Structures are given as C-alpha cells and as structure tokens.
Amino acid sequence: MVSHRSRYQLGFTLVELVLVLVVASIVAITAGSKFFRADDANLYSASDNTLALLHQVQLISMQDTANLATRCPTLVFSSSAIGVATSAQCTTAASFVVNSANPEQIILDEIALQISQQGTELTLPVLIRFDSWGRPQGHCGNGCTINLNHSVGQRQICVSSQGYISSC
What is the value of pTM for the model shown? Predict the structure, then answer.
C-alpha cells in the first residue's frame, strides 16, 4: 500500500519562513556591527582617497611630456590633512588651505599620518611630486611608505621608486 502525504505536509509554512528570516536578520545586525564600525570606514576611506590623489597627481605629471615643470602638481601630506597643493606648487613651500568640501583634500581627524623612506621617518609636511615618466621625485624619490594609523587599525600605501602606487 502506498502512503500519500497530505498536501499540507509538503513544505514549510509561511510563519516558519518569516520566523527564520527575522532571526537571521537579528543575528546579521548584531554581528555586522562588530565587523563594520564607522571608525573602520573612516580609515579605509582615507586610505582609498589617498591612493586616488596619488594616482591623480601622477597622471597629471605624466601629461607633461615636454617636461616643462611649470604646473608642478604636488601632493602635500601634513599632520592634519592631505591635499593637492594650490599655492607655490613648484617650491618646497607648496601648500593648500584646508577645506573639508574640497574633493582634492582628505581631513585626517583621528588618523595619524607617518611617512617613511627606507625605514627612516620623514618630517611632515612631505611633498610628493612625479616626473613625466610617473616616477616619484623629492621626498619619495627612492620610494616610501605612507602609514595611516587609527585606534582600530592601520593601512599602508607603498610608492615605489619606479612609480608603482598600491596598498601594501
């Protein structure tokens, strides 16, 4: 004799499915806050934006194929901010006025900045320029490491003497 299952016993009820979704959502929200904090986002954002600004300054420098050195795109690293120089770009006094609305600037808030070259820490402010081949000049001419430190962790950016820029 073949037993037939009732049509009511073939799957989960809607109440059971909703209950599983509610429990899974509560667990995801509770666990997610442990892994993704606003401080982490600030550190990663600063790191990603620093990478983008380095690439931007490098590309602008590489467009100067005549090597005129009249524009001198410069990225200035200070203890409170990172930004593209807007004054005295071609000198050692290159600087910018901090403006949180400027997309070419990163306000460091609770992030500590440290730049080292071959194990030696450089004194801020540090100016990074590139030649028409995309190789770093000045402070990072032999390559350097940019450390962004926060209470939740650290991010490093490496600039090689050949001009490769990446997270390290």
Answer: 0.75
